[in-house]
Amino acid sequence: MQQDVCVVVPTIREYECLRAYFENAREHGFDLDRLFVLLITEDFCDVDAMERMLAEEGVDGAVYDATRREQWFEAQGVSAFSHLVPEASHAQTSFGLLYMWATPRFERGVFIDDDTLPHDEWDFFGRHLANLDRTDEVESVRSGERWVNVLYQNADEHGLYPRGYPYSAMDETVETGRSRLTDVVASQGLWTNVPDLDAVRILMDGDLRGQAQTRTKRSDFEGDFVADPGQYLTVCSMNLAFEREVIPAFYQLPMDENEWDVGRFDDIWSGVFLKRAADLLGKDVLTGYPLCEHNKAPRPTFDDLNNEVPGLELNEHVWEVVDDAGHDADTWREAATAMAHTLADGDFSEWNNGEFLNHCGNYWLDWLACLSDLAPTRTEAAADATVADD
Questions:
Q1: How many Å apart are CA 281 and CA 273, to the nearest integer?
Q2: Which residues pair with 234 in a beta bridge?
Q3: Residue-wise pLDDT tens digits, 248-280
Q4: Torsion angle in degrees (nearest 10) through CA of 6, 136, 252, 65
Q5: What's the CA gap between 27 and 95, in Å, rounded?
Q6: 284, 278 in Cβ contact below 8 A?
Q7: For 198-231, b where at least 16 C-beta lie within 10 A, e where not — what string?
Q8: Residues whose CB falls within 8 Å of the CB of residue 382, separated by 6 or more in sequence, listed in order
Q9: What phi, psi does 209 have (nearest 5°)?
Q10: Contact, 321 vs 354, CB < 8 A?
Q11: What string of DSSP letters covers 7-48?
Q12: Crossing angle of helices 355-374/301-322, nearest 10°?
């Protein structure tokens, strides 16, 4: 079977967790030959050990530290765009997106965080990929605040809101219905054990170690759902599959390495952009199963707070900024270009660190230029394959 799935794992610590994902695949009969595993790490990490792990598991893949990433940009002829991927940041997942884009055989991607484990009851990779092919009916969700809490199914019990959910959209009234899936472009799995909360909510939960006293369990989740068109939701990249086509609108943004010290919103804001583009193009973002177990390591909650505070006010408004962009878009690139220009050209001086949104917009435009330089057309890729076969 063709190797068509790129699994992207940012890691500096617990890369051994991947053994559990591979074992899950074997137990459920998933063909691991379909996977190429891309580990994104740093120069201070043990690249050789990561490569040995992949070899021992018999899984194809590659490990890229900062030095190797620079070499890759140079080899691809796009060194001018190496600034798009920050060092020592979760937003390095953007390198995985570029790597996918430059490799036409990768039709789909999967993001996995290194502090997670699969649930035995699901074929982790198989369920995600099947989700991307679904055309059945699922629950649809909306609220009067235009934001859907991905933890709504048992919110009356645990009272949790996920990281990135706007404070102004809390205490929403939830309405549900039914919706038929037509073209799923992203499958977001949720998480048991440590919920994905921001530092303010973790502090409110009485936890100084960055985790949260309140934990989620299997019974908190009752199946898959979609947020209605025009509704937004948080997208966490720790357990996520997606179609190649979304990459122009899925840039993870230049977090951490910026003069405003904004961090921790890479997957949150890219999820806002993904949902906006999906709505414009009539696509679906499915949330729910497969679950993963999130085993976030203890760390000072105030460290996360320091990273999040510079962007908290922007997070209340960034969805409003892009909500009116791209009405005439017919492609992912057109939707992404419209949103990027809205950010790059806007006046956000009324908000703390508003210029960071201009910065993000300019980087996003560079992202689109980089994708143009990287990707052969499908016709060119087919011709190359024919030449190689000859």
A1: 12
A2: none
A3: 999 999 999 899 999 999 999 999 999 999 999
A4: -20
A5: 30
A6: yes
A7: bbbbbbebebeebbbebebeeebbeebbbbbeeb
A8: none
A9: -110, 20
A10: no
A11: EEEE-SS-GGGHHHHHHHHHHTT--GGGEEEEEE--TTS-HH
A12: 80
On whether the CB atoms of residues 128 and 189 are closer than 8 A, the answer is yes
Average pLDDT over residues 321-335: 96
H or E stretch at 241:
strand 239-243
Q: Are 66 and 56 in contact (CB under 8 A)?
A: no
Burial zone of 272 (CB within 10 Å; 0-12 exposed, 13-18 middle, 19+ buried): buried
Mean pLDDT within 363-368: 98
What gap in Å lies between CA 296 and CA 289, rounded to an integer?
Answer: 19
CB-side neighbour CA atoms (13 Å) of 52: 4
Identify how many contiguous H helices and E strands the chain contains and give both numbers.
12, 13
- Measured CA to CA in angstroms, residue 154 lies from 164, 216, 222, 227 at distances of 19, 9, 9, 16
Helical (H) or strand (E) element with 50: helix 47-57
The pLDDT tens digits of the residues spanning 33-86 come to: 999 999 999 999 999 999 999 999 999 999 999 999 999 999 999 999 999 999
Cα–Cα dist 313/352, whole Å: 7
8 A C-beta contact, residue 348 and residue 354? yes
How many CA atoms, within 13 angstroms, populate the side-chain half-sphere of residue 16? 4
| Torsion angle (degrees, nearest 10) of CA 145, 204, 288, 89 | 100
Alpha-carbon distance of 72 to 81, in angstroms, equals 11
> Can you spell out the DSSP letters for 97-122?
HHHHHT-TT--EEEEE-TTEEE-TTS
Contacts of 310 (CB under 8 A, 6+ apart): 260, 261, 262, 263, 352, 353, 356
**Which DSSP letter does residue 325 get?**
S
Closest CA to 307 of 147, 94, 149, 164: 164
Residue 290 preceded by cis peptide, ω within 30? yes
Q: Is 296 helix (H, G, I), strand (E, B) or coil?
A: coil
Q: What is the CA radius of gyration of the chain?
A: 20
CA atoms within 13 A on the CB side of 324: 6
